[in-house]
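FAQ: What does the model actually see?

It sees only this:
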Amino acid sequence: MTRARAAALALAAGVLHTAAFAPTGAWFLQIGALALLFGLVERASPRRAALAGGLFGFAWLASGLWWLHISMHQFGGIPWVLAALAVGLLAAFLGGYYALALGLMARWVAPGRWRLLALVPAWLLAELARATWFSGFPWIASGYAHTVGPLAGWAPWVGVYGICALAALAAAGLVLARQRAWAWAAPALVLPLAGLLLPQGFTAPAGELAVSLVQPSIPQDQKFDPARFAANLATLAQLVDSAQGQVVITPESVVPLPLAELDRDTLAHLARPQRPVLLGSFLGNVDEGFVNSVVALGADYHYGKRHLLPFGEFIPPGFAWFVHAMNIPLDDQARGSHQRPWVVAGQRLRPLICYEDLFGEDIVESVTGPEAATAFVNVSNLAWFGTVMIQDQHLQFSQMRALEFQRPVVRSTNTGATAAVDHHGQVTARLPPLARGVLEARVEGRTGTTPYASWLAALGLWPLWAAALLALTGLALAGRRRAAP
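And it is asked to produce this:
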């Protein structure tokens, strides 16, 4: 195969990979895309393997993260060409993880069937590195495509990154089956399918809770406009007034200024003695920094965001010029300090602010032990990024957390996706994008611990790192012995 054709196939496979994620739910496309990539790498030189991995990762992440362009161009004021270039550079950087992993794997493992199997731990290492290095950015990690389908049953056992490896194993199995190497292909295909038979009942009901999830649908260009502030607060108050649930949840930064600057009359109008309100705002001060927070009005509880978004909430070294060019309000924030759930109406609710729900390893502490959370509450503001793909992708991450920890997840967002997800990862209720209103939902809290939560709380992601490194080393040695004269 010519270099140009191989490069084109790698790019096409990367775009196909993106199509496997929400909103399509076509999880099988992901395994097919990986099978195309693995076929390109099976006998490639290290340089060509690295190129294929890098091009695949670039196409996947550029097509999956294109909506970042909206925040930079439409709201940040950066010319669209420069915004598109920034998205491309980010995709190229993230694609570098896959280039590095596949290139090194091809250097260590001889071409052939051993290398096909070695692609599985190499893929897992790339996914783990992207999820953890430089604060981590695991958006649309490959395992997230499997909130439905046969691999979803593995979620409470091995989590999203374990599913990344199982999907890669299934892809290797497809390539082996095409080669009619059935003795190799059968185990590679059967093991992922075992998720259909694994036990799933690890948690028990802990009572029901009626929640009111507010979606004010304030356009992003009006959210921080001082001239619109009074009108936006009036809209919020009307929605809170109309809520019928036991608890009212509002979106991230629905009050887009430090709470100390909000007058008492306004706070009193938002608070409801008969119905607790979890309000999205900011805590802190100029000296100590401002914290993106949720505050329980009328109760002694608040939670501050702990895992901050690079560029949007903290400034990586050397990038102050870029962040300041976009005029992002409160662009260099402080971190929250605790994971305690909010005890209310017989439930223990663990808040997650925006993309914190991508990091199960960060939040596992709150679902283990006697005071473990019975439900997750995600509050977000995705108005920065439009409505196409981004909302469905983020909802899919909440579905994966629900599967991993067998806890319901309720989501209150500014423009979508405001939704309720049960402990099976199924969306039970959802407001349309951009619809202004309140989603009334009933959720069943859960107690208990999944196998994944147990080992993740004790050891973090290190068992997956160790398994991948050991498997890659073993396959490299086996391949070399086989290739030796």
